[in-house]
């Protein structure tokens, strides 16, 4: 049997070399944090490099959409009606959301819904937001496309249910999008749009796939 020779003491790194390597790693990690992570995730860009790379704008989009979604959720919990949203639509949206939550029972989640196709159009006044959700089981897929007539919108494609939340995609000043949405878990999955322009816009959504229900939740 051959035993591997132990390295000579002279071949081992010195304490000074180890300290130097550790300091280099710390500095590199700090540089990545300041120039990439903070601009991309929180729109904090002290060096200006993040904006040059387009990362700061990404962080601004995330922060703005998260703030808007949180305001809408808070308004819903307090029963408040956003200024730009008529009262009848708000009440209807809350009832639709409750109805969708009731559909996600363990028994319903065990059965994959039949394939269906839907199309809806929503007109948004300046500053107004709207949310459309589909009830989906984990792994279900939906082909979608939506387009804006009269301008552009900010959007957040996300999901929630069973104590879980996720964001699939976000954008600002977008005229439309298409793709395939695959549910990460059982729950409600769909879009939140906000019209930040100065004139009315209309969002037309088309969906085709496996989901139990589609409703305007806001």
Summarize the structure.
The chain has 218 residues and is of the alpha+beta class.
Structural summary, described in words:
With 218 residues, this protein is of the alpha+beta class. The protein has five helices and nine strands, in the order αααααβββββββββ. The protein has helices at residues 15-42, 49-52, 55-78, 87-103, 106-109; strands spanning 115-124, 129-136, 141-149, 153-161, 164-174, 176-182, 187-194, 201-210, 213-216. α1 (15-42) crosses α3. Mean pLDDT is 79; it is low at 79-95 and 97-110.
Keywords:
218 residues, alpha+beta, four-stranded antiparallel β-sheet, 9 strands, 35% strand
Compile the SSE list and pairings.
Layout: H1 15-42, H2 49-52, H3 55-78, H4 87-103, H5 106-109, E1 115-124, E2 129-136, E3 141-149, E4 153-161, E5 164-174, E6 176-182, E7 187-194, E8 201-210, E9 213-216
Antiparallel strand pairs: 1-8, 2-7, 2-9, 3-6, 3-8, 4-5, 4-7
Global morphology: elongated
Q: What kind of sheet is the major sheet? A: 5 strands, antiparallel
| Quaternary structure type | single chain
For the termini, the CA-CA separation is 74 Å
Rg of Cα set:
24 Å
User: Which bin fits the share of residues in helices?
Assistant: 25-40%
Kindly name the structural category: alpha+beta
- Percent in strands: 25-35%
Sequence stretches where pLDDT stays below 50 over 5 or more residues: 79-95, 97-110
> Mean pLDDT across all residues, rounded?
79
Total strand count, please? 9
DSSP helical segment count: 5
Record the strand order, biggest sheet: 5-4-7-2-9
| String of helices and strands | HHHHHEEEEEEEEE
């Amino acid at each position: 049997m051959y035993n591997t020779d132990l390295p000579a003491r002279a071949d081992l790194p010195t304490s000074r070399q180890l300290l130097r390597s550790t300091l280099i790693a710390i500095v590199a990690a700090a540089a990545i944090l300041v120039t990439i992570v903070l601009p991309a995730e929180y729109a904090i860009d002290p060096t200006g490099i993040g904006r040059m790379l387009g990362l700061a704008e990404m962080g601004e989009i995330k922060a703005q959409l998260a703030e808007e979604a949180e305001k809408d959720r808070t308004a819903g919990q307090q029963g408040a009606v956003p200024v730009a949203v008529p009262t009848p639509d708000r009440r209807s949206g809350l009832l639709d959301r409750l109805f969708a939550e009731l559909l996600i029972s363990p028994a319903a989640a065990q059965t994959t819904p039949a394939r269906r196709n839907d199309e809806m159009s929503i007109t948004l006044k300046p500053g107004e937001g709207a949310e459309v959700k589909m009830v989906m089981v984990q792994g279900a897929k939906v082909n979608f496309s939506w387009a804006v007539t009269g301008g552009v919108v900010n959007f957040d494609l996300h999901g929630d249910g069973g104590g879980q939340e996720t964001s699939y995609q976000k954008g600002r000043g977008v005229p439309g999008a298409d793709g395939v949405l695959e549910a990460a878990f059982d729950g409600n999955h769909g879009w939140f749009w906000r019209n930040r322009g100065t004139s009315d816009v209309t969002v037309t959504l088309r969906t085709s796939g496996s989901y139990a229900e589609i409703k305007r939740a806001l």
